[in-house]
Amino acid sequence: TWVKRRIGQDQELHKRKDDQRLALSMSIKMADISNCGRPEHLYLKWGTKLAEEFFLQGDNERNRGDQVSPFMDRFAPSMAKSQIAFMNYIVIPMFESIAEYLPEMHFSVEHCESNKNYWASNDDSL
User: Fold this and answer.
1) What residues contact residue 96 under an 8 Å CB cut-off, 6+ apart?
2) 118/40 Cα distance (integer angstroms)
3) 99-107 CB contacts, 8 Å cutoff, 24+ apart
4) How far apart are CA 3 and CA 76, in angstroms?
5) CB 109 within 8 A of CB 37
6) What pTM, to 2 d.p., does this model score?
7) Is-contact 7 13, C-beta < 8 A?
């Protein structure tokens, strides 16, 4: 990935202001989406709260007569599909990039894979 290439090109990345800012920005984003990288019992607890927040938004849209946004319709749940896609396209690539720079963070990738497997076995859209 780009992080590995940058590290291979320049062993002094941590000393450059632009790279420090990028690392801090990535850290903040990782914290924002960190739920997917938590142990399953914590991930599911907070994921349930997130789903309820999404469903409330969908309820508000429905009550206004608007089309309900994708993944926000409590009458057509698709948490499994949305979480698998979110992890595949956003979370895991970002966490893998960060783990290349900070190998101690690789546990978050492993938790993501485990949580993704949970949804592969527990499809709620059936």
Assistant:
1) 1, 109
2) 8
3) 100/1, 100/3, 100/4, 100/7, 101/3, 101/7, 101/13, 101/23, 107/37
4) 39
5) yes
6) 0.79
7) yes
Q: Which two tokens stand for residue 33?
A: 């989406």
**Rounded CA separation 31/61 (Å):** 28
Q: Dihedrals φ, ψ of 85, to 5°?
A: -65, -45
The residue type at 65? G
Q: How far apart are CA 69 and CA 44, in angstroms?
A: 22
The rounded radius of gyration (Å) of the Cα atoms in the chain is: 18
CA distance 7 to 19: 11
**Would you mind telling me the total number of residues written for the chain in this entry?**
126
For residue range 8-57, list pLDDT tens digits in order: 565 565 667 777 787 788 889 889 999 999 999 999 999 999 999 999 99
Residue with tokens 């590995």: 4
